């Protein structure tokens, strides 16, 4: 029961982290108006200011989680990001948002690598997609909850009070990890103990990661495929602005609409997606990469229709749900693919590296590019500048299927070769 209690607590912490990080885009219109921010400044805050620091910190936090107690690493991260969330509520200008936002990135970078290491140690490989689906259900709940809170409770409290409240809740949440310090320490794998006892340096572990990325095509395709699909996440940062500016929906209605659709779609998608991925592999004796590939192929047309439809069209609400489903449903399977192809000794490090690629090269670059091109298109007189920019991001999202196709083909050949060798023996 302790491992399921640990999993439940990690889900709760994941919810809190995503509420914290998405409260800024959920209050996009109010904050940009109050502090007189440009779209490029807003894109910097939601993109590079947070994402670059978050991603650069990820591999280091993964190394710390591989070598030391991952629960303590997470607890320290919660305290840091919660204090900075509180400071965000006191911001008076762009700089006052920028500095705490960067520090929040450092704190939140502890969670996913350390949690992946804990989950990988507590649950068997054939359960990974299911368990990771449950864990990342917290991410989707937190994202949707941020928009819903901004459109409902936030309308009464105001954006500043929401950030102050979230900061206080985070400090309290960190205390819940105290009873699990000894439990997770006892679950350190032999490889982690060997690294610690041999005095393996951070540089040595990062060099092992680099050698794996260069020499293992399956690991490389799993990392790049998962990362590229996060372009959809970059587009989400502009959802409220897009609904207000290009679709003519009122600010509070835009946040509550997207938040509601997100919660209704993401929770069952994350939970059932992991279960479906593990069932799909067993039932058809195939790969999780094929499962992810099929999700992208069937979702892509509805995503494009969503961008082009009016709010009155039935494709609009369906497409909005699909824009959430497309990332949430295969998430557990994608995370499992990264861990399945990473060396056991650096699994948390591999997760931190994957989040680095996803956040810096995809989300960070993507949010800045979407904001930049939206401003360019608006200056050129485009009727729907954000829509045009977001359609370009959607095309990049769909290209992620190429990496999962290569991973599926390579894994299928490897399985066939292994089966042939077994038969000969």
Written overview of the protein:
The protein is mainly alpha-helical and 425 residues long. The protein has a single domain, classed as MFS general substrate transporter like domains (Growth Hormone, Chain: A). It has helices at 2-26, 28-34, 39-46, 48-67, 70-88, 94-108, 111-122, 128-151, 153-157, 159-174, 181-186, 190-198, 202-215, 217-229, 231-236, 239-245, 251-284, 288-308, 314-328, 331-340, 347-379, 385-398, 401-424. It is globular and about 50 Å long. Residues 189-198 and 417-425 have low confidence and may be disordered.
* Run of helices and strands: HHHHHHHHHHHHHHHHHHHHHHH
What is the share of helical residues? Answer: over 70%
Rg (C-alpha, Å): 21 Å
Outline: globular
CATH fold title = Growth Hormone, Chain: A
Output mean pLDDT: 83
The total tally of domains equals 1
Low-confidence stretches: 189-198, 417-425
Structural class: mainly alpha
Largest sheet at a glance? none
What is the annotated CATH architecture? Answer: Up-down Bundle
Give the class-level CATH name.
Answer: Mainly Alpha
Strand-residue fraction?
under 5%
First-last Cα distance: 41 Å
